[in-house]
Amino acid sequence: MEFTPATMNQLVQLLRPPEPEVLQGEDLPSTGFDITSNRDKVAVAEEKNPPKTIEEYEEQVAKELDSVGHVGVGLGDRKCPEYTMNYQQSVSAEDVYLQIGPKTPGSASCENLIVRVKMPGDKKENVDLNVDKTSVTVDSSQYSLKLPLPHGIDPDCSKASWDTDTETLVLTLKLDREFDFVNF
């Protein structure tokens, strides 16, 4: 048998796997859920006050970028609370007095991340807290915060407490790090 370009093309067609059927548009089965969007509502709000000059446009864009840049933004009338993050080391007498332990003053030797969320005017009963490996979400009637964490944590070994004097939520988050010659 002779292999010509025509017979090679036919052989390619025979060996090509069949393409799966692709469902599109109305062929898809109905899930019973309606999908809605609020994009048109946001666009209407922007159309009420369109910028007239390039300076107004740049100012409007800067305000939008500034509001998007804040953690916890866009959650209705609830405010983003003030918060601080500090690292904590577990040190022993050897580390402090004799300086023979492997710890360094750097954050690479820290075991915990302490997050303090100030929530003035709120109570412990109103706080809803969700902690996962990469973020902390705090919701209450007055405040909302979605905080990405700088390091992975172990949520099962972490603790939360409420300081009633300062109305502050204190989270002690156990860092999930592999300890080596740098991190110990």
Automatic annotation (TrEMBL):
Q: Which Pfam families match?
A: PIH1_CS
Q: Which domain of life is it from?
A: Eukaryota
- Similarity remark: Belongs to the PIH1 family.
Coiled-coil-forming residues are none
Any one Gene Ontology BP term: axonemal dynein complex assembly
What is the protein named? Answer: Protein PIH1D3
What gene, per UniProt, encodes this protein? LOC113493513
Q: Give every CS domain span.
A: 99-183
Q: Mind listing the GO molecular function terms for this protein? A: dynein intermediate chain binding; protein-folding chaperone binding
Q: Name one GO cellular component term.
A: cytoplasm
